[in-house]
């Protein structure tokens, strides 16, 4: 037993107290000699320790936990390769604006620059992909610096922080009265900004006057928990809404203001376009897909994002929920002057929506074998309930799903985000099911994506975290294969992108889960239901047509 008197406290226990003060309930980790005192502290503080098989999984799970809960996630990894293995997960959280803390080990101070085990310049490596990266210099500062890192996670748009803690700093004990232990709720301010009041009033005026407005609700709508404010605005002002990223599910399917497939048409014909919480990045054609004649307004947590890559007519920096609520309030009393005249515009968009649905309807209902990916994702969409969190992890197959799968509740869609990282699926499942055990988790993997982090399926079995998993298996990295075929011809289309015919259903059963193979589209629905009823982590291996490509894949500019 450690000698923890009431008068002294170790660095690891200080870290655990700071995590507890932030509301962290679980750490994701892969063990190493540099970091085990944090485990000891977590046991005392009642923080769960989930040990995984690869540090990338730990970092992705911390990212996923933050997205689901709104609280920061935390991953703890050892020095050297433990930290470098986690880099991809941190980078993904950085691009996705997800608040998480990665804690990495480091050699002892008295071995600095001597070539100690796993010694690397972690802070220098992490600085470009975090909002804050530092070394804890002294045991008494351990809790203080954890709280500092969390404070930086929530400055502006959220993001990850990194701390390295040398082994002697972590293991040493200091008098309790010499250590700063920040108290919960007392070490960082609210970051919720309501935006510039004059700009809010101007946006209200623009919305009332617009004849053909459209709004895009991006990930920050979920990040700021602005669902109710967004719904109130679009319904009160009669504005058609499109959703992307974590903003999907803000409006339920079937809502008269919920649009999905007519976005390009809307953005080409609208007279006012409001972009909420999503950057003008590659997903938005860097802003070039918006009508040059439209008035463009951008609302974002980060001033650096507003007006980046294209000019705008109005920019508002602030919390999406507070800004949208203020805009709705500012427009009150003038609603009839704007909302009533938009019926024709909504009807026009609904017709464009229906046309797009009918165009793909034959594939959505196709009985072909190998199975058309549209049929697979259509079956998954029909399978989802209001309590199903949907996770997409893959390239071409998930691109198909983005056009068809509609989460039925806010916060029930998870994808990598703009870094496009394959391998997030299993760790996101891990985080989502642990954070929300009352929810069903449904994950669609490409076979290439699953293979990157799939061994942690065993972690899901070990911690009894059941989910319904589907592998859209075409034995190819098909999104890349399409590009190679388009650029270099059929004779070179399969260089470096073709995989073996892996029976992932057998893999699941080998690790203690539920597994099934599907070749007939009529068997998809029954297999999904059996996976749900199994109460186990599951994989349904669905053989899909390798020669079917998603429109989003074929339209990517990098292949042209």
Automatic annotation (TrEMBL):
Organism equals Streptomyces violaceusniger (strain Tu 4113)
Organism superkingdom: Bacteria
* Family listed: Belongs to the TPP enzyme family.
Can you name this protein? Thiamine pyrophosphate TPP-binding domain-containing protein
PANTHER family assigned: 2-HYDROXYACYL-COA LYASE 2, THIAMINE PYROPHOSPHATE ENZYMES
* Known cofactor(s): Mg(2+); thiamine diphosphate
Query: Which Gene Ontology molecular-function terms are recorded?
Result: acetolactate synthase activity; flavin adenine dinucleotide binding; magnesium ion binding; thiamine pyrophosphate binding
Name one cellular component (GO) term.
Answer: acetolactate synthase complex
Annotated ranges, domain Thiamine pyrophosphate enzyme central: 200-326
CDD domains xref list:
TPP_BZL_OCoD_HPCL, TPP_PYR_POX_like
Point out the signal peptide segment. none
In terms of InterPro entries, this protein maps to:
DHS-like_NAD/FAD-binding_dom (IPR029035), THDP-binding (IPR029061), Thiamin_PyroP_enz_cen_dom (IPR012000), Thiamin_PyroP_enz_TPP-bd_dom (IPR012001), TPP-bd_CS (IPR000399), TPP_enz (IPR045229), TPP_enzyme_TPP-bd (IPR011766)
The answer to keyword Metal-binding applying to this record is yes
* Gene Ontology process terms (BP): isoleucine biosynthetic process; L-valine biosynthetic process
Phylogenetic classification of the source organism:
Bacteria, Bacillati, Actinomycetota, Actinomycetes, Kitasatosporales
What does the UniProt keyword field contain? Metal-binding, Thiamine pyrophosphate
Domain Thiamine pyrophosphate enzyme N-terminal TPP-binding, residue spans? 10-119
Q: Report the residue ranges that make up the Thiamine pyrophosphate enzyme TPP-binding domain in this protein.
A: 393-542
């Amino acid at each position: 037993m450690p000698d923890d008197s009431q008068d002294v406290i170790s660095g690891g226990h200080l870290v655990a107290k700071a995590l507890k003060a932030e509301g962290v309930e679980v750490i994701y980790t892969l063990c190493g000699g540099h970091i085990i005192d944090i485990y000891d502290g977590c046991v005392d503080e009642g923080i769960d320790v989930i040990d995984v098989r690869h540090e990338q999984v730990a970092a992705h799970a911390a990212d996923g936990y933050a997205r689901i809960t709104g609280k920061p996630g935390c991953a703890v990894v050892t020095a050297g390769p433990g930290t470098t293995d986690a880099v991809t997960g941190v980078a993904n959280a950085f691009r996705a604006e997800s608040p998480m803390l990665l804690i990495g080990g480091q050699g002892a101070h008295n071995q600095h620059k001597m070539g100690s085990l796993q010694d690397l310049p972690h802070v220098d490596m992490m600085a470009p992909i975090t909002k804050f990266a530092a070394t804890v210099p002294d045991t008494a500062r351990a809790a203080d610096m954890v709280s500092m890192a969390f404070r930086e996670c929530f400055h502006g748009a959220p993001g990850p922080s990194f701390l390295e803690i040398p082994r002697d700093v972590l293991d040493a004990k200091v008098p309790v009265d010499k250590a700063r232990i920040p108290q919960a709720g007392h070490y960082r301010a609210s970051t919720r900004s309501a935006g510039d009041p004059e700009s809010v009033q101007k946006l209200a005026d623009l919305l009332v006057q617009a004849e053909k407005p459209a709004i895009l609700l991006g990930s920050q709508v979920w990040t700021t928990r602005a669902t109710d404010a967004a719904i109130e605005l679009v319904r009160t002002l009669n504005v058609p809404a499109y959703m992307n990223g974590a903003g999907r599910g803000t409006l339920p399917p079937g809502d008269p203001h919920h649009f999905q497939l007519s976005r390009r048409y809307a953005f080409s014909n609208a007279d006012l376009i409001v972009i909420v919480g999503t950057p003008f990045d590659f997903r938005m054609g860097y802003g070039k897909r918006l009508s040059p004649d439209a008035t463009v307004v951008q609302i974002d947590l980060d001033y650096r994002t507003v007006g980046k890559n294209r000019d705008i007519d109005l920019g508002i920096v602030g919390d999406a929920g507070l800004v949208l609520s203020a805009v709705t309030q500012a427009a009150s009393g003038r609603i009839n002057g704007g909302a009533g005249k938009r019926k024709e515009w909504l009807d026009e968009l609904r017709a464009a929506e229906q046309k797009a649905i009918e165009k793909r309807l034959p594939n959505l209902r196709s009985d072909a074998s190998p199975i058309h990916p549209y049929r697979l994702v259509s079956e998954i969409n029909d399978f989802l309930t209001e309590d199903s969190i949907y996770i997409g992890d893959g390239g071409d197959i998930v691109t198909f799903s983005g056009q068809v799968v509609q989460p039925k509740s806010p916060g029930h869609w998870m994808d990598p985000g703009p870094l496009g990282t394959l391998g997030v699926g299993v760790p996101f499942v891990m985080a989502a099911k642990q954070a929300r055990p009352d929810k069903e988790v449904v994950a669609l993997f490409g076979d290439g994506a699953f293979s990157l982090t799939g061994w942690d399926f065993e972690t899901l079995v070990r911690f009894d975290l059941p989910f319904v998993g589907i592998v859209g298996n075409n034995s190819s990295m098909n999104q890349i294969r399409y590009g190679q075929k388009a650029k270099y011809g059929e004779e070179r289309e399969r260089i470096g992108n073709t995989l073996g015919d892996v029976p992932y259903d057998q893999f699941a059963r080998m690790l203690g889960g539920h597994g099934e193979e599907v070749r007939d589209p009529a068997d998809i629905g029954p297999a999904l239901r059996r996976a749900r009823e199994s109460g186990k982590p599951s994989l349904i291996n669905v053989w899909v047509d390798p020669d079917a490509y998603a429109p989003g894949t074929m339209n990517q500019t990098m292949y042209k």
